[in-house]
Amino acid sequence: MKIIETKKLSKVYTHDFIDVEHGRIKFNFFRRTVALDGLDLEVGEGEIFGLLGPNGAGKSTTIKILMGIIFPTSGTARIMERPLGDKEVKAKIGFLPENPAFYDYLKGEEFLDYYGQLYGMPRSVRRKRIDELFELVGLPDHAPNLPLKGYSKGMIQRIGLAQALLNDPKLVVLDEPQSGLDPLGRKEIRDIILRLKDQGKTVFFSSHILSDAELICDRVAIVNRGRLVAMGELSHLLSPKIKEYELVASGLSRESLDVLEKHARKFIERERDVLMILEKEELVKEALRRIVAENASLVSLTPRRETLEEYFIREVARTNAPREEVRA
User: Fold this and answer.
1) How far apart (Å, rounded) are the C-alpha atoms in residues 253 and 262?
2) pTM of the model
3) What stretches of 24-139 adopt beta strand conformation (E)?
4) pLDDT digits (tens, 9 = 90+) for 285-303
5) What is the third-level CATH fold of 2-236?
6) 305 neighbors 318 (Cβ within 8 angstroms)
7) What pLDDT, in 10s, does the model give residues 66-81?
8) Which CATH superfamily is domain 242-305 in?
9) Does an H or E element contain 19, and which?
10) Residue 327 neighbours by CB under 8 Å, 6+ apart
C-alpha cells in the first residue's frame, strides 16, 4: 500500500504589494512565491521516510498540506490511498508540528489526558497509555505533574512526540522531531522511530540533521525551492566508491611523518598519535609498510564513502540557480 502519494503537488502564495510615492500610489502588483512546484512523492507502508531540504525548501508546506492545515494550489495527494481529509484515515495519523504551541498551564499528564479525550479513548485506556508514553519518550519523573510552561524546549519536543503516538497511529508524521534535543535526546528519538518501524508503522519526517536521517531512513527525498531533487534508497543515491581513508597511527619516525604529510589531504599531529586523510589506496599501503617496518602502531584505518550530507550539499548546490520572482 502507498501510505502517502502526491502528484504534481504545488502551492503558490500570492502577496499584494503597493508602492507609495509622496503619499500617492505609484503602482501595485501581485508577487507570487512558489513554495511547492509539482512535487511527486511515494511513501510505502512500514517505511521510515525522510523529507530533507534547506530552509524554505517546502518541507513544512508539504506536511501542512498532507495534514489538512493548508490546501494545495494544484495537484493531488492521498494518504492510505484515500483523499486528504478522510476521517477514518485521520484517526490513524499521529502528527507533531515543527513549532508546537501547547497549553502552558496544563500539566503534562493533563495535557495527554485532554488529547486522549479528543480521540474518544476510555479513561482506563488513557491512563495506561499515558504512563507508557511518558516512559517511552524519556520524560523525567516530575514531568507528569509539571505545567508545560515549565518544560524545556527538549521536554516540549518529547511530550509533543508522546501526543503524536497517543492514538497508536498507523502513520506518524513528524516535522523536525529532533529540534532542540541534545545528542542523547536525538539518539533516543532515533531509537523510538526505529521501534515504531518494528511495530509496522510508517514514519514520515522532515529533518535538517542529515547524519541522523542517514542512520535510520529506508528512503529519503531531497527538495529544494519546492522541487524534488532526488528520491530513493540511500544505497542507490550514495556512491559506494571509497573516496578517502582516515588513518591514525603512533610511533612513526619523523622521516616517515614528513613523507606522508606531503601526500595527505589532511594531516594532524597530536600528543600521542597522528591523524591523516589519504585519498589513494597506494598511499595507505605505503603508510602501512612504514608502520610495520618501524614497529609503530596502527590505531585505526577507516575507509570513507560518500555521506548523505555530502550528497545533499552537492545536489542542492546543483539546483540552486536563481529563480526569478513572478509578477502579475
Assistant:
1) 15
2) 0.83
3) 24-44, 48-52, 74-79, 82-83, 93-96
4) 999 999 999 999 999 999 9
5) Rossmann fold (3.40.50)
6) no
7) 999 999 999 999 999 9
8) YebC, transcriptional regulation domain (3.30.70.980)
9) strand 2-21
10) 29, 30, 31, 32
